[in-house]
Amino acid sequence: MIRGVYSLLAVAAQPFVRAKLKRRGVAEPGYLQAVEERFGSYEHPARPGAIWIHAVSLGETRAAAILVRELRKLEPDVRILLTHGTATGRAEGERILRDGDMQAWLPWDTVHAVRKFLNHFQPRIGVLMETEVWPNLVAEAKAHGTPLVLANARMSGKSLKQTLRLAGLARPAYAALTAVWAQTDADAKRFAQAGATVKGVFGNLKFDAAPDEAQLAQGRAWRAALAKPVVMFASSREGEEGQFFGAIREMPDRKGTRWLVVPRHPQRFDEVAALAAAAGFTVSRRSAWTSGPDAADVWIGDSLGEMALYYGMSDVALLGGSFEKLGGQNLIEAAACGCPVVMGPHTFNFAEAAELAEEAGAALRVGSMAQGVARACAMAGAAGGTREASRAALDFFAAHQGAAHRTAQAIRAIAGPAIG
Asked: What region holds the 3-deoxy-D-manno-octulosonic-acid transferase N-terminal domain (predicted)?
């Protein structure tokens, strides 16, 4: 009954979804690509039997790339179907594809669109990355005979409360999943409370990501050529950059540090550059560099896929999303590059990783942006101040690897042999 009402609302919402895509497409043309795929219409034929992986956005797609790499080790001829919800996720996903692989938008969660998707692609298994569970998607996959699993699964306490408030809709969806493989024991307990069948705690796939060595080397070379330490604000979010620039202005010796800001969302690159200029700083952008950073007060990292470069040229990084009530961004990539992290009070999206990093000495927590900027400057400016923390970050990263292999094996055990 509840899902029936939900389904009617999903159908009624389709005109609004189309209008939203048009609006977003003004700033990000990727949203105007293959729009009809979102409603179950596909231009190209599909070969049955692919392993379908849904990675909604950029972070999930990068985790999916790690999993795909491991799947190809176990099954070299595996065919992959990647689906996404955001333009950045789809653009990143193109880098994963090989001949024979496919890519599409995840269908809007109507019964009609989901059925057309499943009938068209006929995957042998569906793998949802991290959090994406939709009621009709799960129900129709089960009816279709397609096992659907949730991998690298995470659920915050806040998300669990929201799930339990919608228990009549959410619990059947979680219960219909074939398996959930959680990142942590705490995640596993929350998924069990939500009604899911948890079949393993495998850790976080992102610990199995190797940073781009060429980017890392370039970043370190640029850092070595600089006379001043570099503090980075990594994956900054809306509402945080203004605090960051304000905190810098209050620093008594702000000219003694180089400042790098890498916004989480590419559509905000211009906005963040404008915020820095309005705060009275000279600004330069990575996209304009020819032979490395210049002498501007603030650098804007306005490129995709170059986080290893940015971490390589930084002495310490502040963690975006943790200085507002946004749950924090993932600090694992920083650890992989040996870049220590200063995080704010809000890390509920990655609570266990943040706690473990803090225990290992790879990260430290502060209560405000002002404290974070001051602490990062002190670490970066001290002689050898980040050397021990950098080593702790690398050790922390190495100690938590192996999730990709465990997940890939579990997927193949459920999916069975390749078709065709």
From this structure: 34-209
Q: Write the DSSP string, 384-415.
A: TTTHHHHHHHHHHHHHT--HHHHHHHHHHHHH
DSSP state letter for 286: G
Q: Return the bridge partners of 129, or none.
A: 151
Active-site position among 28, 36, 43, 60: 60
Amino acid (one-letter) located at 163: T
Numbered ranges of CATH 3.40.50.2000 in the chain: 213-399
The reported pLDDT for the residue numbered 212 is 93
Phi-psi category of residue 192: left, alpha or beta, with phi > 0 → left and psi -120 to 50 → alpha: alpha
Answer yes or no: are the C-beta atoms of 300 and 322 closer than 8 Å: no
> What are the strands, taking DSSP E only, across 320-362?
341-343
Here the tokens at position 301 are 């990292």
- CATH architecture of the domain 213-399 equals 3-Layer(aba) Sandwich (3.40)
Domain with CATH 3.40.50.11720 in the chain: 23-203+402-415
- Give, in degrees to the nearest 5, the angle at Cα 42 between 120 and 146: 25
pLDDT in tens, 161-201: 999 999 999 999 999 999 999 999 999 999 999 999 999 99
pLDDT for res 384: 64
Looking at this protein, which amino acid is placed at residue 199?
K
Q: What is the pTM of this model?
A: 0.84
Residues 6+ apart with CB under 8 A from 109: 10, 134, 135, 136, 137
**pLDDT score of 420:** 60
- What's the CA gap between 335 and 146, in Å, rounded? 37
Q: Is 333 a catalytic residue?
A: no
pLDDT at 10: 96
List all residues 6 or more positions away from 20 whose beta carbon is below 8 Å from its beta carbon.
none
Measured between alpha carbons, how far is 205 from 73 in angstroms, rounded to an integer? 15
Helix (H, G, I), strand (E, B) or coil at 345: coil
CA 380, CA 229: separation in Å to the nearest integer? 6
pLDDT of residue 299: 98
pLDDT at 37: 97
| CB neighbours of residue 258 within 10 Å | 23
CATH architecture type of domain 23-203+402-415: 3-Layer(aba) Sandwich (3.40)
